[in-house]
Design a protein that fits this description.
alpha/beta; globular; Aminopeptidase; 304 residues; 36% helix; eight-stranded mixed sheet
Length: 304
């Protein structure tokens, strides 16, 4: 495992064993008890939605279902809104997709992101917020709906734009669970390897060029509250992987959005494979990152 090489770093945030256990439980339920979940397995997709709905509701908020049909299956985005006390019309949105690619139980991709979303909602529920924060679990991010009008986040972002929602920044939680201190464990798109570490022991913050100021604000807030190693990249969206998650849908709708990620296939050897199972993940670092993101969102929601 990789925990021994990163556990000596200053934690930056206080993370309890209960928080780590909650993340582990959410990943296990989604990836093992439910397993592969997509429109070709509608009962599993529905079971995942029910579980996430109950977990989000346990923080004391009503969960709004945004439903639509894909492949003859009724699908749902799941939204919790934490209403701001002073500038409620200004919105920060945190999202993660809960479906999987065919043939994979999706522990890292993306039960890890959903587990973090649930835990961030729980942490934020006890905090006063000036701006509104929305926490949304998206359906249908993976193929065959990837980058199509049936992608759950596309449906959501389109509706938000039609309502005139003022989403200041969208955070896409895309694979948060795998870390390695081995040399050359981290790969990159061509040309970037000289600028970043060759060890996959950090969390990445990624945006397109239009979102670079939002990226900088988020990354600075994260670093102010969490000492876990992190890197940022603002890049043209054409670079492979930069736009490959739900943040792309918000770029398309004209919003600024950032992906938070362990870098997926640039690091994780089990990406989109049957071996993407819960024991591959590192839950202690994941808990630190989750707590750091909750603190960063709190700072942005309550800033000027």
């Amino acid at each position: 495992m990789r925990l021994e090489t990163i556990s000596g770093m200053s934690p930056g945030v206080n993370v309890t064993e209960d928080q780590t256990d909650r993340l582990r439980k959410h990943v296990h339920v989604l990836a093992v008890d439910i397993g592969e979940r997509h429109t070709a397995r509608p009962e599993a997709l529905s079971a995942a939605a029910r579980y996430i709905e109950q977990a989000l509701a346990s923080s004391g908020y009503a969960v709004r279902r945004q439903t639509y049909e894909a492949d003859g299956v009724v699908c749902a985005n799941l939204e919790v809104e934490l209403l701001g006390r002073e500038r409620a019309e200004e919105i920060l949105l945190i999202g993660a997709h809960y479906d999987t690619v065919w043939g994979s139980p999706g522990a890292d991709d993306n039960a890890s992101g959903v587990a973090a979303l649930i835990e961030i909602t729980r942490l934020l529920s006890a905090r006063p917020l000036k701006r509104t924060v929305r926490c949304v679990a998206f359906v249908n991010e993976e193929p065959p709906h990837f980058l199509s009008d049936l992608m759950g986040s596309v449906v959501y972002a389109r509706e938000a734009r039609a309502r005139g929602d003022d989403i200041e920044i969208m955070l896409s939680l895309e694979m948060l669970g795998y870390y390695s201190s081995a040399p050359r464990s981290q790969q990159y798109p061509a040309g970037l390897g000289l600028c970043y570490p060759d060890r996959g022991d950090f969390i990445g913050f990624v945006s397109n060029l239009r979102s670079r100021r939002a990226l900088l604000r988020l990354h600075r807030a994260f670093r102010a509250h969490c000492a876990f190693p992190s890197e940022r990249l603002a890049s043209p969206a054409m670079v492979p992987g930069v736009g490959w998650s739900d943040h792309w849908s918000f770029w398309r709708a004209g919003y600024r959005a950032v992906m938070v990620t362990d870098t997926a296939f640039y690091r994780y050897p089990h990406y989109h494979m049957p071996t993407d199972t819960p024991e591959k993940l590192d839950y202690a670092p994941m808990a630190r990152i989750t707590a750091g993101l909750a603190d960063a969102v709190t700072a942005l929601a309550n800033g000027r």
